[in-house]
Sequence to fold (519 residues):
Amino acid sequence: MDKSRGRTGRTTAGGAAAEIRTESGHRGLQFEEPLIFEQGAEGRGGVDLPPAPKVAERLGGVRRKGPIGLPGLSEPQVIRHYTRLSQKNYAIDSGVYPLGSCTMKHNPRLNEKMARLPGFADLHPLQPMQTVQGALELIDRLAHWLKTLTGMPAVALSPGAGAHGEFCGMVTIRAALAARGETRRRVLVPESAHGTNPATAAACGFEVDSIPADARGRVDLAAFKAKLGPDIAAIMLTNPNTCGLFESDIVKIAEEIHRIGAYFYCDGANFNAIVGRVRPADLGIDAMHINLHKTFSTPHGGGGPGSGPVVLSAALAPYAPLPYIVHGADGFRLVETKEGKAQPFGRLKTFHGQMGMFIRALTYMLSHGADCLRAASGDAVLNANYVLARLKDVMTPAFDGTCMHEALFDDGFLKDTGVSTLDFAKAMIDEGFHPMTMYFPLVVHGALLIEPTESESKDALDVFIASLRSLAARAKAGEAEFFHAAPRLTPRRRLDETRAARQPVLRWRPPAPASQAAE
Ligand SMILES: *Cc1c(COP(=O)(O)O)cnc(C)c1O
Fold:
């Protein structure tokens, strides 16, 4: 632990808390945690292992040239290290996480309990089909509920995230166009779209054509119509959109896009706002990804990978990727090659999708039931509107009227205060909140996008709202310096984020030289 000493004064910039210097480098209960390799010492260990049996030749005579450099640590050291690292994460388990467009909702522990059942946790994707009938049935059930909630006839479950789902959907559209002998080049993407939409279209070989938003934060219908032509392959539209608003002309947009023989891709990342209330099929959508880690309460990274199933209309279903599950006389079976005329584009990834996420998402659905899924989307919208209503006199809402699941503000309320959206967000960290999404969507100046989700109680929202109201008042009272020095109470102050990304310092202690090798 010696190496953790002498780290005092690492927090240098001004501000009361930063001036407190400690010998250990710790500040209160915030720990200055060295790398595990810096804490390790040779000969220390957490378990007593018996001496390795003497075998003349193992692994065909291949021998290590030296120690592999694992740190020697006692069990308490290991426990503290990882516990402290976990405490450096701000998570939905620590507090309000209002990151707009991300649906950072509570991950119910029942999901975790089900995913850890040995029959699921110990599965291997190469097991014989007869031994995984239960797993295949679970995947089939999840598919059933995703199709029911969206009104769509088919779903591809293998995509590993929302962006991967977009890729799956757009490649499916490309395959369907190719089957018609067409090579349409252009994809329409509204200006307010998430960056993954134009990136996906470009990655699939399409040209991106941007549609402006109107004064109400929706697709400008006249501008959209003016762009329609025989070379349009698809539109990629988010609904509710990233301004937190329902695209009120969506049915008209679907009709127009189908009239010219193109397809309607919907980015379903915001599905949490409409689950149980609106079925995407009824809006005329041909393909939509669903982020299980957003709408269906599976973890965002950390606790596991994401999952982005794509529901497909009858027109696109024949081109869905392999494999898919069918149920026959001999039970469930994975179809790995396609019979029939329509040719799917092949496999999207090695195995069949993120099984652990399927279990969690189905657990969420079954434990809620249709009535509570509907209640959850209602509460998510109610919470966002409560935040909007309680802040609209001190911050500037980007658009008039009510919102869907997220409340969007612009930086008008910070005008002439010398405080930017970024400064405001940094001050929120000192208040103990993860900041909202900033500077997105791009159509709103200095955007602050708040998505409380249905997880938050009124009490929690009231504390959050009180913090934002107080910060808005301080900005207006001319306390720009206060904001420029934020955050003050974090282990690190303002970082040079560009340099951190471009010149990352990745250090660990290399193994001892071969001459010191034990063997
Ligand atoms: C989160 C999100 C995506 C991308 O989903 P990932 O699962 O992060 O790949 C795409 N579009 C919107 C609107 C999103 O919010």
In short: The chain has a mean pLDDT of 91.
